[in-house]
Amino acid sequence: MAKSKTSIQNLQPFVLIVVGLFLFSLDRVGFMNWLRSPISYVFEPISFTAEASSSNALLWTKALTNASSYIKEVNSLKEELVSAKSSEESVALLEEENASLKKQVLLSNTEDQFAMAKVLDSSNEGALRINAGTDDGIEEGDIVLIGNTFIGVIQQADKEGSLVRTLLNKSSHYEVAIISKDQNSDSLSNDMVKATGVASGAVNGIKLENIGINAEVSDGDLVVVRDERVGELLVIGRVVGLVDNPASTSKSGYISPVFDYSNLITVFVKTN
Amino acid sequence: MIKTFLFTISVFVLIFVEHFFLKVFAFSLFAFLGIYFWDKSRLTGFAIYFIATGLILDVTMHLPLGLHALALSVPVLFAWLSRVIVPYENSITEYIIFFISTLLYYIVFLVLQTLLQDFTLPYIVLKDIIYILLVSLGSTGIYFVIGLFTKSLRSKDFEKIRLR
User: Fold this and answer.
1) Terminus of chain A with fewer CB atoms < 10 Å: N or C?
2) Inter-CA distances, B164 with B43, B90, B159, Å
3) DSSP three-state, residue A105
4) Shortest Cα–Cα distance, A42 to chain B (Å)
5) What pLDDT was estimated at residue A8?
6) Mutate to test the interface with A, among B62, B74, B130 (most CBs of A within 10 A)
7) What is the DSSP string of A37-63?
8) How deeply is B144 buried, as exposed, middle or buried, from its count of CB atoms within 10 A (0-12, 13-18, 19+)?
9) ∠ Cα A255 A259 A265 (to 5°)
10) Helical pair B43-60 and A33-65, crossing angle rounded to 10 deg
11) Min CA distance, B34 vs chain A (Å)?
12) Residues B16 and B53 sit within 8 Å (Cβ to Cβ)
């Protein structure tokens, strides 16, 4: 009896492998969506609560280790508050000007529908976890942006949360257009394109490749995504580290994104 | 009835604690418990519990289903092979095997995560390796402390009455 118990226990790793491969295969062909939804409905609130608690714990740990710098910051903020209060009238005028400018500036087409989401976590592999999912109308392949800046694409959408693949991800490849550095990023069109290229995720940033050798591209030029999967011109960032090797057939460089993806708090997902 | 109740509660607690510790310490309680209990529980209980919780973690982390089960299978397979090749009980080898098993889990999880999702290999930098080593050492330390605690529960009188 003891011998059979031991021999049955020996099957544990193989059971895990077989079941794991079986579940993965079914998930890849989309047969497991009926299982993902209820699990997401029941357990994602628990994971969100755990993530929020851990963020607070990390904040407290950071506060304890940086207590002296926080005290200095508080004291300098007190001085700033005094000077800010003394110029309250001019601040009120600025606020009114800011509100009217916001009404006039249209950052996106008003016909598009968006779901707002908070970024819960970011990974070194160029992925963001957000707290909006299929319940908010999000589907795989939806574009994630802030204003007219491209952030990424929804890779996996569950009921209450989703995974976003940013341009830093190794499997991200997009056709891009390069526009003059002096061009206003709020109104883009195909007439302003200086050159085209391909943006890919790499270990040390967003790589920009396949730029024509004769293209008049320089550091600081604006890079916008012009890919049929995205469907519109959205800003990625600026060209940096351009390499102009006369011996090669194309130019390459890197893109400095508008936002640091690991510091994002709120993003918008285009759902229509 | 009570077993089912305890099973359900433990699943909820494990999901909460796993997300909490992963974010704060990059420590996986799921891996620790899986490697600790693989040879201490019945096949059906072990398989059902860890496949179910692995499935739930796959969904809450938006990963391909089966990833946690596959990642756990590698260290369990290694531990099983080690036991077949080098029988060990209550020795330093046991802790070395546990350390290597935990190390294997984190490395395999890191590789499988990008391999199964994006079909590419991940960027493994020195910082990641150092962190994985530290977490594996920490897990082995906890395993050692638990071992000491369980041994201390056995009283000297009990040892005396055992037939030799």
Assistant:
1) N
2) 31, 18, 10
3) coil
4) 10
5) 61
6) B62
7) HHHHHHHHHHHHHHHHHHHHHHHHHHH
8) middle
9) 150
10) 70
11) 11
12) no
Task: Give CA A89 to chain center in angstroms.
Answer: 38
Q: Say what angle helices B2-25 and B29-37 make with each other, to 10 degrees.
A: 130
- Hey, are the CB atoms on B70 and A124 less than 8 Å from each other? no
For chain B, the distance separating the N- and C-terminal CA atoms, rounded to the nearest angstrom, is 40
Q: Which residues contact A108 (CB under 8 A, 6 or more apart)?
A: A114, A145, A147, A148
Please, are residues A232 and A239 in contact by the beta-carbon 8 Å criterion? no
Q: What is the dihedral of CA A112, A115, A117, A121, to 10 degrees?
A: -80
Task: Rank A261-270, B40-49, B94-103 by mean pLDDT and report only the highest.
Answer: B94-103
Q: HEC states along A129-183? A: EECCCHHHCCCCCCEEEECCEEEEEEEEECCCCEEEEECCCCCCEEEEEEECCCC
**Residue A86: its pLDDT value, please?**
62
Cβ within 8 Å of residue B46, ≥6 positions away = A12, B37, B38
What is the pLDDT, as a whole number, of residue A100? 46
pLDDT confidence of residue A97: 53
How far apart, in whole angstroms, are the C-alpha atoms of residue A32 and residue A82? 59
Largest CA-CA distance found in chain A, in angstroms, rounded: 87
A2 → chain B, closest CA residue: B42
Q: Which residues of B touch A11 (CB under 8 A)?
A: 43
Question: Please, is A40 exposed, middle or buried when counting C-beta atoms within 10 Å of its C-beta (0-12, 13-18, 19+)?
Answer: buried
Whole-number Å distance between alpha carbons of A11 and A5:
10
Amino acid found at B3: K
Look up residue B42 and give its DSSP letter.
Answer: -
Helices assigned H by DSSP within A131-206 = none
Q: What single DSSP character describes residue A230?
A: T
Tokens of A118: 């908070």
Residue in B55, B47, B46, B44 with CA at minimum distance from that of residue B18: B55
Distance of residue A183 Cα from the nearest chain B Cα, in angstroms: 35
Measure the CA–CA gap between B79 and A253, rounded to whole angstroms.
Answer: 47
Side chain identity at residue A140, one-letter code: E
Do residues A126 and A169 make contact, with C-beta atoms less than 8 angstroms apart? yes
Residues of chain A whose pLDDT is less than 50?
Answer: 1-3, 100-101, 103-106
Tokens 């995974």 correspond to: A163
